[in-house]
Design brief:
Distance between the termini: 43 Å
Strand content: under 5%
Radius of gyration: 22 Å
Length: 267
Amino acid sequence: MKSTTRMGAWIAFLVGAAYFLIPLIATFEFSLRMRRGEYSFDAYRAVFGDPQFQATFGYSIVMAVVTIVVGVLLVAPTAYWVQLRLPKLRPLVEFITLLPLVIPAIVIVFGYLRIFNSSSYLPLTNSETATDFLLVCSYVTLSLPYMYRSVDTGLRAIDVRTLTEAAEVLGAGRATILFKVIFPNISSAILSGAFLTFAVVIGEFTMASLLNRPAFGPYLQLMGANKAYEPSALAVIAFLITWASMGLIQLFGRNAHTRRVQPGTDS
């Protein structure tokens, strides 16, 4: 019975792996065919040597970093306060943070454009800096489910109330408690949310395109419409970025778990 169950699990794993890996391998193989009659990395050299790739990728990295900082400063204090003082509001907060998964990105960005267009009381589309700020707000909204889930999971894994009361007894203020007590204890959860946010922002197309910003997502679409081999190389690069983010999540999560369970350490 055990052998049958184990064989079924392996079959399911192999089928799933084949479903995922075969198209990726085929894409990678096609990206090497830019030079007729032989394999080469010409498509990758063309991509990395393209000034537009460098500009859009650098822009998206900056937007991702800013989004992560804003998202952490928004989500972490909210999740901490809900768990500490307002546990009855958790279902409502969870519902609100899940809305970006239900509402399409195009609806969100059109709502932003309707509210913050040049004819509104708070125009954010009149300059590049203001539009960048609006794009960051859009990215924070889009990544809210992932960041909140990661931070909330980290907070549930520690005794928030005891840590807070101990810090208050020692005379620490709210800001000190949050940044010097709570944040270090949920650092792996924050990093997990940060890497998920990074992966979301790097490949996002709809919001950046409709706000007319030079992000990596619209560049991917533009290359796919006008080139043959470079889009395959870009697809492989995008997969590698996503995999690297997922691998870093696992690495930091495993290291944090090892530190918590390591014998002989103080709790």
